[in-house]
Automatic annotation (TrEMBL):
Keyword Transmembrane: yes
Principal place of residence: membrane
Protein name according to UniProt: Branched-chain amino acid ABC transporter permease
Xref: InterPro entries: ABC_transp_permease, LivM-like
Presence of the UniProt keyword Transmembrane in the record: yes
Organism this protein belongs to: Ancylobacter pratisalsi
A single MF term (Gene Ontology): branched-chain amino acid transmembrane transporter activity
Keyword list, A-Z: Cell membrane, Membrane, Transmembrane, Transmembrane helix
One Pfam family hit: BPD_transp_2
Ranges annotated as spanning the membrane: 48-69, 81-103, 153-172, 203-223, 243-265, 277-298
Family annotation (CDD domains): TM_PBP1_LivM_like (cd06581)
Subcellular location: Cell membrane
Amino acid sequence: MKPLTLYGSILVGLAVLATTPLYADNYVLRTAAMVAMYGALATSWNFIGGFTGYPSFSTAAFFGLGAYVGALCQRHGIPMVVSWGIATVAVAVFAALLGGIILRLRGHYFAIGSIAVVELCRLIVSSWSSLTGGGDGLNVPLIHASPEELMRFFLYVMLGILAASLVVTIIVDRSRLGFGLRCIHQNEDAAAMVGINTTAYKIAAYTLSAVFCATAGAAYASWTGYIDPTDSFQIVMTVKVTVMAILGGAGTIAGPALGAAAFVLLEEVFWANFIDWNRAILGVVIVLLIFFLPGGLLSLRTRLRRATGGAA
């Protein structure tokens, strides 16, 4: 896809979400906010999973830690937006330190290790009840506003996080870092032989995959007003984010956000119409889409062009 077409498509997508308060009710606003939030999470995962080819399942750990750091800061009187910034920096440092250890693993071993990080974080937060409230969770200071104003505010917050993650993705894609990450994806040993510092590049990608997850987690805690370990460190969330990125097109700029939008909308449609079988139907549809579109939804246009001999 040509750069101008790509940037125009991204702007149109963001504009569609940003204008929902003009014509939609709170249910649609909530769905738009969830699309933006999961779009940011999937775009973040793309740095390590898409560009670098490392199957990370740490998203829920970064999201949950961001939620808890942000919530604890707010409970100690720190302003909300400053708390989000502290949560982002704290989780980025955590990811960089953790990356120096866990990125020594490859393939399935790395995937299993990243899942263990989520479970380990959940257990620590659950056990450290004097700080985190343990299994009872934490209440977060509420924003005094009407439900409509609150929904609009957090929609724009999530949109801002999504837009920032897309801008960073474009910068990385056009930079030496993006080139190095793609080389590691193709052949890590060969990349090291031509002078790419694979360890530093992988740590940078892993840290970037944590930054926007932490911000989204901190904002989500302020949005809901309550967090607990089970909800904040969901393995299901980390799997969903990976599926969203693959569904849209892993390793592309806009694919993960597109996959997140498609996944959330399909989930809402199936939940509303097939309440008993919605999970099973959604799973089958997602598997079929990934099976027949291995390059993601973004590859659909190319496939149509080939099928019609270039006429599409």
